[in-house]
Every structure is written in structure tokens, then in C-alpha cells.
């Protein structure tokens, strides 16, 4: 297997950190990009000297520009934030801010990577979307819409890169629910403002939402990130990666069944 220079964003925690560790273990040259400067030293210790840890807030243009000179073969757009609540009442600025991170910044970073990959004769851009980028999730729609946008962007960009014919591959990875703390934060983000800002939904409905979420997450979340890390690694290592990678397999099956049913 050819060793690659892989840059992964949002590598300070969760799926990004686990993927960075796995890729280091497989002998790749990993650039693990973290959100905040104080995450650099602990992660560098964790990953060891073969990896390079950098601070890269994907929303900051100067931070993004650093990647032009890093000779990246594979970019994994993993960094993301969460925002939830009903589309009937959420302040649109919250949705706008979320799209700035999850969609626009990931695309701007990818544009820089694509130019440098073209100069080097090719490469792969991977977007970490979500199963909620395939199946709309009521009350999590700000986040779900951002992931629909990323899944669609990956599919379209992939075709554009085929036309360009400069060796740029594009894939999207769509994880189901994994227990990294992200889903809990995603779910809770709506309650932070619904309770303060005079929601259309009654306290009883809000309380029911809270217990419904806790029940769903304890039932659905996968305890370790192993299966999704393997999918991301498969996309990063493939000479011709597939468009889409989904894990765990139960969610891959669900998406297929819903597609057959026309849902
Ligand atoms: N866990 C799941 O069930 C699940 C399911 C579907 C999709 N996903 C996707 O998987 C990816 C990783 O999520 P995770 O579960 O591992 O959650 P996570 O631990 O919260 O990972 C997200 C990472 O992105 C970083 N980040 C946020 N804003 C950033 C910015 N502006 N610039 C750079 N980094 C930034 C976060 O840093 P800070 O925490 O320091 O802000 C964090 O390290 C995300 O794209 C998420 O949407 C997760």
C-alpha cells in the first residue's frame, strides 16, 4: 500500500483524532489539524514524532492557506460544529454560522488543497458528512441541512473533477451515530436557546424532546469509532475511492432500503 501524506481537520477529538492515530499506525505521513492552539502539544505527544500537528481553524483564511505548502495527497474534511432546533423558529444567523463552518469553510479549504494536488499530479478530497445528510432529522435540521449540502457537494465536485481529468478524487463518508459526545451537544444546542428565547414549543414538548433524544442516543450510538475510522481509511488509501462510504452497516442498509422505498 503506497504511503500518503494525509491532512485531517478537527483532529483534536473524536473521529478525527481516532482516524489520525489509525493512519499513523498504518505508516502514513499524517498532518493532524486541530481547532485550537492549546490542543497541539497534547495531540503531538499522543501521535508521536512521525505526525505533524498544526493549529487550523477552518474558518480563518490565513490558517487555511498553510495547507498550500504542505504537499497533501489526501485532505479529510472532518471538522464540524453542531446546531439544532426547529426551522420554524431558529434564528437564521445560527444556521448561517453553522454553514460557514460545516460547508463554506470546508469548501474553501478543499479549493486550496485541489490546486496544490493538481500541481503534484493528483490527490483525494474526502468530506465527512453524516447519515443525517441523507435522511432529514426533524429538530436537528440546521446540522442535517449542512450535511445534505456536503453530501451533495461531494457528489457534484467528484463529477467536475472527472471532467477536469487531473487525478483529483472526491469521496464522502457518512457516519451513523457514534458516541463521541457530538450527538449530545448537537441535541442540546437547541435547548440552550429554545428555553431562553420564548419557543413556539411548550415546556412539556421540550421536556419530551429531551427524554426522547436521551433514549434514542443510548439505543443507537455505537460505542467505538473503529468501523467509521476503517471506512475513512479505506477512502484515504484507495487509488480510486468510491463516492460514498457509510458505517455502521445497519445505517448503510437503512439508507438503501429507504432509497428503494422512494423515501
Ligand atoms: N459522532 C457522530 O455520531 C457523527 C455522526 C455523523 C457525522 N459525524 C461527523 O463526524 C465528524 C467528527 O465528529 P465527532 O463525532 O468526532 O465530533 P467532535 O469530536 O466534536 O469533532 C469535531 C471536531 O471539529 C473541530 N472543529 C469545530 N469547529 C472547527 C473549526 N472552525 N476549525 C477547525 N476545527 C473545528 C472540533 O474542535 P473543538 O471541539 O475544539 O471545537 C472537534 O475537534 C464531524 O464532521 C461530524 O459532523 C459525527
From TrEMBL:
One of the record's GO molecular function terms: oxidoreductase activity
Designated name of the protein: Short-subunit dehydrogenase
Keyword Transcription regulation: no
Family classification: Belongs to the short-chain dehydrogenases/reductases (SDR) family.
Keyword annotations from UniProtKB, A to Z: Oxidoreductase
Gene3D superfamilies recorded: NAD(P)-binding Rossmann-like Domain (3.40.50.720)
Keyword match Oxidoreductase: yes
InterPro entries in the record: NAD(P)-bd_dom_sf (IPR036291), SDR_fam (IPR002347)
Amino acid at each position: 500500500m503506497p504511503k500518503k501524506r494525509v491532512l485531517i481537520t478537527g483532529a483534536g477529538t473524536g473521529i478525527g483524532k481516532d482516524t489520525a492515530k489509525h493512519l499513523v499506525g498504518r505508516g502514513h505521513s499524517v498532518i493532524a489539524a486541530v481547532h485550537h492552539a492549546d490542543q497541539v502539544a497534547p495531540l503531538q505527544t499522543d501521535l508521536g514524532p512521525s505526525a505533524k500537528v498544526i493549529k487550523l481553524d477552518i474558518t480563518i483564511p490565513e490558517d487555511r492557506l498553510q495547507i498550500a505548502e504542505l504537499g497533501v495527497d489526501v485532505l479529510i474534511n472532518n471538522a464540524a460544529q453542531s446546531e439544532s432546533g426547529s426551522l420554524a423558529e431558529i434564528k437564521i444567523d445560527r444556521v448561517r454560522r453553522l454553514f460557514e463552518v460545516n460547508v463554506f469553510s470546508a469548501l474553501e479549504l478543499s479549493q486550496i488543497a485541489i490546486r496544490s494536488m493538481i500541481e503534484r499530479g493528483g490527490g483525494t478530497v474526502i468530506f465527512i458528512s453524516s447519515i443525517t445528510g441523507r435522511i432529514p432529522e426533524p429538530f436537528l435540521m440546521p446540522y442535517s441541512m449542512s450535511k445534505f449540502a456536503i453530501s451533495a457537494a461531494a457528489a457534484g465536485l467528484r463529477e467536475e473533477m472527472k471532467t477536469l481529468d487531473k487525478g483529483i478524487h472526491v469521496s464522502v463518508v457518512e457516519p451513523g451515530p457514534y458516541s463521541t459526545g457530538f450527538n449530545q451537544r448537537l441535541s442540546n444546542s437547541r435547548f440552550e436557546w429554545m428555553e431562553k428565547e420564548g419557543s413556539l414549543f411548550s415546556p412539556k414538548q421540550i421536556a419530551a424532546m429531551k427524554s426522547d433524544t436521551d433514549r434514542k442516543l443510548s439505543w443507537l450510538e455505537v460505542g467505538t469509532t473503529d468501523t467509521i475510522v476503517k471506512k475513512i481509511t479505506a477512502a484515504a488509501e484507495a487509488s480510486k475511492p468510491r463516492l460514498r462510504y457509510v458505517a455502521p452497516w445497519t445505517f448503510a442498509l437503512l439508507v438503501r432500503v429507504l432509497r428503494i422505498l422512494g423515501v
